[in-house]
Structures are given as C-alpha cells and as structure tokens.
Amino acid sequence: TIRTEGLRRHPTHAVEVKWKDHTVTIGGGRPVVVQSMTNTSTADTEKTVEQVLALARAGSELVRLTVNTPEAARAVVEIREKLDRAGCFVPLVGDFHYNGHKLLTEVPECAAALSKYRINPGNVGKGDRAAENFAVMIETAKRYGAAVRIGVNGGSLDQELLARMMDENNARPEPADPSEVLLEALVESALSSAKGAEALGLPANRIVLSCKVSTVPELLRLYRMLAKRSSYALHLGLTEAGIGSKGIVASSTALGVLLEEGIGDTIRVSLTPAPGAARTEEVVVAQEILQSLGLRSFLPTVTSCPGCGRTSSEFFQELAASTQSFLRERMPEWRTAYPGAAGMKVAVMGCVVNGPGESRQADIGISLPGAGESPVAPVYIRGVKVASLKGSDMAERFQAMIEEFVRTTYAQ
Ligand code: SF4
C-alpha cells in the first residue's frame, strides 16, 4: 500500500525528464523517483550499455553517466541508440564537470541524446568564464528540451563564493560559526545558480537542485534550508556515503528523515561497491528506503523473524533469503502482468511461537518447524492453511505456490 494520507510533501515544481514517449516526472507531488549512476568508462559503450540495462532492470528510473571527454560524449550517442534498440528508454543524465560547455557544443548529438544535464556550479570555470560556460550549458538545455540539475557538492563548492561569504561573516559584529557559513554558501550556490538559469530563460519546471555533503546532520540542515527557501524539485543523496553497511545506514538515516519530512523528489544512494558486489545494490537500497517509509511499493514485503535457539537449522535462513531473491527476480516480469504483486506480503518464520500467527497475517506465509517440532511446515494463504510442506524441495514448492498465488490474485 502506498501512503497517501498523513503525508506532507514539500511543494515543488514538477520537472519532466523525457526520452521519446517515456516521461519520468520529478517533483510536483509525484512518487519519489529512484536514480543511479554507472561506474564504467562511458567511452566503453559495451560495458556502459550493459550496466545501464542492469540498473534500469533493477528499477533505476533515470541513469546518470559521466561525460568527461569528447570520446565519452560521442559514446553517449551510441549508448542511447543501443539502449533504444534493446527497448530500454530510461532517460539518460549527463554528469558534467569543467568542460561540459565544450562537450555539449562540440558534440551536439550528445546534447540531444541526454534528457538531463547535471551542472556543478563549482566546476564550470573561474571568474567571468564561469558565467559564460554556465550560460552555454543552459542555452543548450533550452535548445534540446533537456532538464538540468544544479548539483552543488561540499567537495567542489565555488571557492570565490565561499571566500566572499566568509569575509562578509567576519565583518559582522557577531560572526556565525564558519561551518554554518559553509552550509549557507552551499545553499546560496545552488539557489543563485538556479535563479541564473531562470534569468537565462530556463523555466523553474526544468530545474532540479541538489546540495550534497557526506555527513548526515549537515545534509539534514542543508536540505531543510533549501526546502524553506525554494520550490525547486529536490534531488536527495548523501555523497560519498561509504562502503557496505556504513554507506547503507548513513544514506538510509539521512534520506529517511528528510523524506519523512516531505523533502525530496528523487533519490540516489551513493555506495562504494564492495568488491564483487553488484552495481545494482544502490538501486535496491533506494527502493527499500522508499518502501519502508510506505512512499512507494516496488517489491513484495518479506516478514521473517531473526531466528533464535528454537530455529531448527540454517535452512530457515536459506529459505528466507531464497524467497527474497525469488521475489526480486520475478518482480520485473510481474510488474507488467501482475503489478499488484508489488504490494504482496510474504512471511517466512522460524518456529511455532510466532510463525503461524505472522504467516496467517501475510498474503502467503510459511512457518518452518523449530527444533523438536513436527517436521512439517504449514503454508497459509490469507489466513487459511492450504498446505503442509516437508522435505528437501520445500523452497521450490513454496516458490511455486507464490507464483500460483500471484497469477490467480493479481491478474489485471
Ligand atoms: Fe525464534 Fe520462533 Fe520467534 Fe523465530 S518465531 S524468533 S524461531 S521464537
């Protein structure tokens, strides 16, 4: 069930990011959009296409690519064509730093193939060149109908702006803490750049803002300030969140708090992938954050107990994990034919103490026998016991029952 009541959303402009007939809307009260970024060299078209397809299949609704060289800019055109041929119309976002004005001008086909440009105001050039280069990128976005994200980052803040604001602060009778001035400078950089883009003729409903730092308390303060001072659609993300559980917990904490306050229209979870981990992990985490807040529904929910001394074997953990993987693998196909399956509740429980109770409350649930209990696992569908499974093929038989339940319950 997607929460629609009791949820305040910070009002923002609706920004349409389009590719052909496919439109993803960020802001304006629309469902929070999940996005991610490739980590391949964009010039390597084959690997990049492969990764974009994997990210899109995992549920990334926008995919960002680094566009840092003329080769990468030319590759974007080829990548877009290959994705189209594969039937994947996920809008692509170009990430530009330092030379975006040149690349977008020298490779106009790249400017046309991208649905959104990310511009970092701290990395567009120095002095007068900064304003000129910024204007070139905004004019290009206007020409090709692209949306723009003004993406300010704590690690690449406009140093001239920061120095000016620090000087102004020092001249005050009671100067603020320098860390506070830094946050204000980040917000100021984002808002003044957005106003600059509007002055150049790019409407507010084509502008998304982000202001990323790598610590949770500062990120919360930054986005509260941004939300208070503007109605631009907001892209949330904790930059350089880190590796493994550290990155997941920090991102979930920061994004969860802001989303619950109604702040944020699109999210990206920036994880340093653990060696061997799939790049799609960040999409899964982003979806889990939105689903646990009840903001969107991507995947059936699996209720499983932690297990304890009553659990008879590791089979319980294996069954919980294989059920979760099965649902994640099947959902892309179900999404078309049985979209209601995303709201399904599945229970996998470890013994008779809470097992039958939780399983009865799920749409479909299984309660494994604990140590010393009869070696039979009752399966419940919407509160009614429908089968008792036992034997080594229990996982396959439970999955077959889930498949059958989805086909008979959620067909459109
Ligand atoms: Fe332990 Fe049973 Fe509770 Fe699971 S349901 S945590 S196995 S007592």
From TrEMBL:
Cofactor binding: number and manner: Binds 1 [4Fe-4S] cluster.
GO-annotated biological processes: isopentenyl diphosphate biosynthetic process, methylerythritol 4-phosphate pathway; terpenoid biosynthetic process
Chain ranges of the IspG C-terminal domain: 302-404
Cofactor(s) this protein cannot do without: [4Fe-4S] cluster
Biological or metabolic pathway of the protein: Isoprenoid biosynthesis; isopentenyl diphosphate biosynthesis via DXP pathway; isopentenyl diphosphate from 1-deoxy-D-xylulose 5-phosphate: step 5/6
Signal peptide: none
InterPro entries for this protein: Dihydropteroate_synth-like_sf, IspG_bac, IspG_bac-typ, IspG_C, IspG_TIM, NO2/SO3_Rdtase_4Fe4S_sf
Domain IspG TIM-barrel: residue ranges: 23-286
Enzyme nomenclature, EC number: 1.17.7.3
Reaction catalysis annotation: (2E)-4-hydroxy-3-methylbut-2-enyl diphosphate + oxidized [flavodoxin] + H2O + 2 H(+) = 2-C-methyl-D-erythritol 2,4-cyclic diphosphate + reduced [flavodoxin]
One annotated GO molecular function: 4-hydroxy-3-methylbut-2-enyl-diphosphate synthase activity (flavodoxin)
Keywords: 4Fe-4S, Iron, Iron-sulfur, Isoprene biosynthesis, Metal-binding, Oxidoreductase
Residues holding [4Fe-4S] cluster: 305, 308, 351, 358
Similarity comment: family membership: Belongs to the IspG family.
HAMAP family the record matches: IspG
Function text: Converts 2C-methyl-D-erythritol 2,4-cyclodiphosphate (ME-2,4cPP) into 1-hydroxy-2-methyl-2-(E)-butenyl 4-diphosphate.
Protein name: 4-hydroxy-3-methylbut-2-en-1-yl diphosphate synthase (flavodoxin)
